[in-house]
Amino acid sequence: MFDYDTGTGVIRAYGAIGPYEDGIDEMMFMEAFDALGGADVSIKLKSPGGSVDSGQSIYNQIDNYPGRVAVHIDA
Question: Which residues of the chain carry a pLDDT beneath 50?
Answer without folding.
Answer: none
